[in-house]
Amino acid sequence: MRATDTVLDIGAGNQKLKKFIPPACTYVPVDCVDDLPGTFVVDFNKEFRLPDVPFNVVVCAGSLEYINDLTGFFRALAAHAPGRQVIFTYCSTRRSRSAPA
Q1: CA–CA separation, 49 and 98 (whole Å)
Q2: Of 20, 24, 81, 82, which one has the greatest count of Cβ atoms within 10 A?
Q3: pLDDT at residue 95 above 70?
Q4: In sequence order, which residues have a C-beta less than 8 Å from that of residue 47 and are 6 or more positions away?
Q5: Across residues 53-81, what is the average pLDDT?
Q6: Which residue(s) pair with 10 in the sheet?
Q7: Please, are residues 9 and 17 in contact by the beta-carbon 8 Å criterion?
Q8: pTM, to two decimals
Q9: Which residues 6+ apart lie within 8 Å of 39 measured at CB?
Q10: Mean local confidence (pLDDT), 19-34
Q11: Among 86, 80, 75, which Cα is nearest to 7's?
């Protein structure tokens, strides 16, 4: 990320990401609960909304696992954030049979 980036942190939770981005970045936390000041609150299982701020990076770390309709979420994100950089993680909870227990 560049110092000039505005980062939407979808599933911000306790806003851990904020500590790891350049201090000059604009950080916009997005979550389904209003635990910390400044959080844009939206439940993506009920509706798709993004904050009305210019942004160029979207981070979804540890939040996609909680979205019921991932296809619909990614379609809406693509429509609302064309040309933006999107960084995401996804943790599958299923283990393969060959994985050690």
Answers
A1: 40
A2: 81
A3: no
A4: none
A5: 93
A6: 30, 60
A7: yes
A8: 0.83
A9: 12, 29, 30, 31, 33
A10: 93
A11: 86
User: What does the pLDDT read at residue 35?
Assistant: 87
Are 87 and 61 spatial neighbours (Cβ–Cβ below 8 Å)? yes
Contacts of 73 (CB under 8 A, 6+ apart): 44, 48, 64, 67
pLDDT grade for 97, boundaries at 50, 70 and 90? low
The whole-number pLDDT of residue 93 equals: 66
Match 């942190």 to its residue by tokens.
Answer: 9
Using CA atoms, how far residue 87 sits from 16, 34, 44, 46, in Å, is 15, 23, 17, 22
